[in-house]
Amino acid sequence: MSRVAYVNGQYVPHSHASVHVEDRGYQFSDGVYEVCEIWKGQIVDMTPHLDRLDRSLKELQIPAPMSRRALVRVMKEVISLNRVNNGIIYMQITRGVAPREHNFPPAGTPPSVVMTAKSVSPHKMDQVAAKGVGVVTVEENRWDRVDIKTVGLLPNVLAKQKAKEAGAHEAWFVDKNGLITEGGSTNAWIILKDGTLVTRPATHGILRGITREGVLKLAEKKGFSVEERGFSMDEAKNAREAFLTSASGLVMPVVKINETILGDGQPGPIVQDLRKSFHDASELIKLTVAGGNAPGVC
Ligand code: PMP
């Protein structure tokens, strides 16, 4: 079956899904987004993802386009219409369509809502994780409000392209104090020789990753000590293990930072354990569509 997208109230073939040329997301990056993992027919950590979406909208003064109940219903429809059992759902809300002017459009302009879902093979992801990935460092050059999950991702795009060209999987931003902030689309972690997990506090300079929050809970459950503080490149290069977290990659072992191979160049036992047991600490919402007729695809 071909893919289906939700665009402003309609379920349309993915190949024809489009928004207006004067959508403010298209013209100004004036919008926010979320990505949730779908695992074994369940939405992972939906509540915290939607809480963060609400916060992002509020920070940008974009009105909520619909109730949470309605949003969840659309999410479930999109996932089910695309028959996704394992994969991701992408949701984007922008300030809507209006003649191009920087200041906000008139009150009452409806926000635009787009959702897509796609299958991702867990086996393929696990194969990547089994080998571990490399990261390269780039200078932090983003604005001060990276805590808001906006679609304005140009520095992230350029950083991740640089990583790709260097044969790496991710780019780590390094701030003016020489401390790693986060990756282009992931949060950054190291594990010290004594087994302590270290990640930057979510108070400033990073997106408060939902997977990061999950790993914090899991680490507590497992009795690991955790330090939420910045860490330098020197510390990272001498770490016992390192990893990335994100909804789309979960817990991804890092085995190389720039030219430095970590340990024996293989994913370490702590990271592997956190990856394997990640869903033990997450909220799992089953994908049954609640009552009523499924909207037709047009
Ligand atoms: N930082 C950035 C810059 C990201 O884009 C993402 C993923 N969207 C993350 C961290 C990880 O967040 P989450 O665990 O909620 O996917």
Automatic annotation (TrEMBL):
Catalyses which reaction?
L-isoleucine + 2-oxoglutarate = (S)-3-methyl-2-oxopentanoate + L-glutamate; L-valine + 2-oxoglutarate = 3-methyl-2-oxobutanoate + L-glutamate; L-leucine + 2-oxoglutarate = 4-methyl-2-oxopentanoate + L-glutamate
Q: Its function?
A: Acts on leucine, isoleucine and valine.
Concerning Pfam families, the annotation shows: Aminotran_4
**Record bears the keyword Cell division:** no
Named in its record, the pathway it takes part in is: Amino-acid biosynthesis; L-leucine biosynthesis; L-leucine from 3-methyl-2-oxobutanoate: step 4/4; Amino-acid biosynthesis; L-valine biosynthesis; L-valine from pyruvate: step 4/4; Amino-acid biosynthesis; L-isoleucine biosynthesis; L-isoleucine from 2-oxobutanoate: step 4/4
The alphabetized UniProt keywords are: Amino-acid biosynthesis, Branched-chain amino acid biosynthesis
InterPro entries per record: Aminotrans_IV, Aminotransferase-like, BCAT-like_C, BCAT-like_N, Class-IV_PLP-Dep_Aminotrnsfr
The record ties this protein, via Gene3D superfamilies, to: 3.30.470.10, D-amino Acid Aminotransferase, subunit A, domain 2
**Which domain of life does the protein's organism represent?**
Bacteria
Q: What is this protein called?
A: Probable branched-chain-amino-acid aminotransferase
Q: What is its EC number?
A: 2.6.1.42
Which family, according to the similarity comment? Belongs to the class-IV pyridoxal-phosphate-dependent aminotransferase family.
